[in-house]
Design goal:
The structure is a single chain. The longest helix has 36 residues. The chain is built from 14 helices and no strands. Helix 7 packs across helix 11, helix 8 packs antiparallel against helix 11 and helix 13 packs across helix 14. It is mainly α and 320 residues long. The chain folds into two domains: 74 residues; 214 residues, MetI-like (MetI-like fold). The radius of gyration is 24 Å and the shape is elongated.
Length: 320
C-alpha cells in the first residue's frame, strides 16, 4: 500500500501541471492587459513597460509558465494580486478554512440525509416511499445550486426572517449556504446507496439471514451496508469536486468569504493571479481527497488490500 500511495502521489504531479497549463493558457490568450488593471488609465507607456517587466509579462508565454510553476513548486508562490498587491498564497490561506468548513458541513449533511434515504428506498423497493424518495432525488439533482440558494434566501431570510441572507457572523449564517451546496451530493448519495444496497440484499448471506427470521432493515444496516460502502465512498469523494465548484457561486450569493467568492471577485476584476491561484488550490484539494478515498477502500473492504498485495506479488514474479 505504501508503494501504491507513493505512485498515486507521483501521478498528481502531471495532473497539477495540466491544470496549471490550461488555466495559464486561457489567461495568456485573454485580450485584457493585466497592466491596465494595475495602473491608472492615464499611465504612460514607459510606466506600463516598467510594470510589465517587473511582473515578467514581457517574456514569452512559455517562459512565464515555467517561472510560475518553478515559483509555486519551490516557494509556494502563486503570484501577487493586481488589486491590493498582496501575495495570492497569503490571501488564499485566509479564505481556505472557510471553504473547507462549508464543504465539510455540506458533506456531513449530504451523508446524514442521503444515505438513510437511499437505505430506506432499497428496503421499500417499488413502494410509494421508494417512488417519493427517487422523485426527491431527481428533483434535487435537477435544481441549479445558485437558483436553490436564491430561493432559500427568498423564503427563510426575506419572507420568514428566520435566517440571515448573507454573512457567516453567527452559526445561523452557515445554514442556508450549507443547504444550497449539499443538495447535489445529497441526491447522488440517495441513488448510489439505493443501487448498491439492492445489489447487496440479493446476496445469499442476506437470504440466509432473512430465513433465520431477522428483519430486512436490521440485516441491511448491520450486514449489508458495509459491503455497499465502496461505491458510496466513491460518490462522496466525487461529490467533493462538485461541492467545491458549486461553492464558487454559492459563496458569492451568500457573501461567504471563501476561495469561491475570491475567485469570482478575481474574474470580475480581471485579477488573473487570484483566479489561477484559486483553481490550483481547489484542484490540489480535489486530488488529495481522491487519493484518500482510494486508501479508504482498504479500510472498508479488506479484499481491496488483498488485491493490491496479490498484484504486487505477481509483478515481482514476472521480474524475477
Amino acid at each position: 500500500m505504501i508503494k501504491y500511495s507513493i505512485k498515486r502521489l507521483l501521478w498528481t504531479i502531471p495532473v497539477i501541471l495540466g491544470v496549471l497549463f490550461i488555466v495559464f493558457f486561457f489567461q495568456a490568450v485573454s485580450p485584457d492587459d493585466p497592466v491596465d488593471q494595475i495602473l491608472k488609465s492615464g499611465a504612460t507607456e514607459e510606466e506600463k513597460a516598467a510594470v510589465r517587466e517587473q511582473l515578467g509579462l514581457d517574456k514569452p508565454i512559455p517562459t512565464q509558465f515555467v517561472n510560475y510553476v518553478w515559483g509555486f513548486a519551490t516557494r509556494g508562490d502563486l503570484g501577487t494580486s493586481y488589486i491590493n498587491k498582496q501575495p495570492i498564497t497569503q490571501e488564499l490561506m485566509t479564505r481556505f478554512p472557510v471553504t473547507i468548513k462549508l464543504t465539510f458541513f455540506s458533506i456531513l449533511l449530504g451523508i446524514a440525509i442521503g444515505i438513510p434515504l437511499g437505505l430506506i428506498a432499497s428496503i421499500k423497493q417499488y413502494s410509494l416511499i421508494d417512488s417519493a424518495i427517487l422523485a426527491f432525488s431527481v428533483l434535487s439533482s435537477s435544481v441549479p445550486g445558485f437558483w436553490f440558494g436564491l430561493m432559500l434566501i427568498s423564503l427563510f431570510a426575506v419572507k420568514l426572517g428566520w435566517l440571515p441572507a448573507m454573512g457567516i457572523l453567527t452559526w445561523k449564517g452557515w445554514i442556508l449556504p450549507t443547504l444550497a451546496v449539499s443538495v447535489v451530493s445529497m441526491s447522488g448519495l440517495i441513488r448510489i446507496t439505493r443501487t448498491s444496497m439492492l445489489e447487496v440484499i440479493r446476496q445469499d448471506y442476506i437470504r440466509t439471514a432473512k430465513a433465520k427470521g431477522q428483519r430486512l432493515s436490521v440485516i441491511a444496516i448491520r450486514h449489508g451496508l458495509r459491503n455497499a460502502l465502496i461505491p458510496i465512498i466513491s460518490n462522496v469523494g466525487n461529490s467533493l469536486g462538485l461541492q467545491l465548484g458549486g461553492a464558487l457561486a454559492i459563496e458569492s450569493i451568500f457573501g461567504v468569504p471563501g476561495i469561491g467568492k475570491y475567485a469570482v471577485d478575481g474574474i470580475t476584476n480581471r485579477n488573473y493571479p487570484a483566479v489561477l491561484g484559486s483553481v490550483v488550490i481547489l484542484a490540489i484539494v480535489f486530488i488529495i481527497v481522491n487519493l484518500l478515498v482510494d486508501l479508504a477502500y482498504t479500510v472498508v473492504d479488506p479484499r481491496v488490500k488483498t488485491a493490491f498485495a496479490q498484484s504486487a506479488v505477481l509483478k515481482n514474479k514476472r521480474l524475477t
